[in-house]
Amino acid sequence: MPSSDEVKQSITNWCSSDDDLEITSDRFEPGTDFAFGLKSGTLSSSPVDLVVLQDAGADRVTIRRTLTLSGDNVSAANQLIASRPGSVTAAVERSGGDTSVVAQTYVYLDGLSKHTFVQAVAELARTSTLLDAISPEVASTDDDTVLADMPDDGTTTDTVSDTVAAAAADDGSAAAAATAGAGAVALDVTGGPTPVTPVVADPVPQVVVPQPVPTPTAIPTPVPLPQPSFTPQPAQPVMAQPAYTPQPMQQPYPQQQRSAQLEQQSRHAHGLTAAQSFWYVLSCIPFGAGYFAKIPAKKAMADFGLATLTGAEAFWYILECLPFGAGYFAKLSTAKALSELDQFRRR
Question: Which domains does the chain have, with CATH numbers?
Fold first, then answer.
């Protein structure tokens, strides 16, 4: 898991390479490894100020936005948060006459990358913009409004006599005036009763009661995910592996065969037998005859690198060569026999 310094450095590099994000300043918050301000949407007309922090020892990075809505908008804010993606949560509560909202989202460290961080910032910034768009409820119109043309007695129609009198004043008709004075019945010239046509009253005007304007509900708009900046590379063809062909066993060289034979023969040489040791000691009794007879043969073996003369043996060999090269001529027979061995034949 990366350390808090590595996480902060990575986020700083991502924000520096993104024109739409800007780190404002470091913040001090108790119980956090780091905290700093982040402005999202710097290319738009209404950027959003966020806070990025990591709690001490936490395995996630928190992105937070705190805002205050005027009026009682707890229900509208909760409804908006419920319509947003599940990674965005909020604590909504009434604060005096206003509404306090703390919205936040998380990015866990094991999946932290530039893509997941920028996506989380975009989701929270979009949610904050929708919360800022919530307006207080419009107040209802006063229900006690009185029409200016309504009479003092509360009636809304004129009487029949008033209507007929107005008609008589306009026409100058005596019959209309008489009808107004008589009330319901008038006499014609012949003296017979003449029914009076009733006057239809004007329709009652309708009183329009204003209805309260409903609170607008913000409609969430899906935010497109940021596209990856890399271009997928086409798959490389897999080269067929050549079939394994076992190699024939190599026969040993003649020199190796001779070495093997010599090694096998050398296993049988383990030194003198008990009888040979007895007779050698016995031959050395008459003035070291057996010892002096061995020196020329050992000198021949030393010449072929098979043995090494001691200091005493080298001295006695030189002394044996003084009487007309007796030691040298005694060595020749053994040297000839050794030269016929396989390992010395081609030298």
Answer: 4-132 (3.30.1460.10), 272-345 (no CATH)
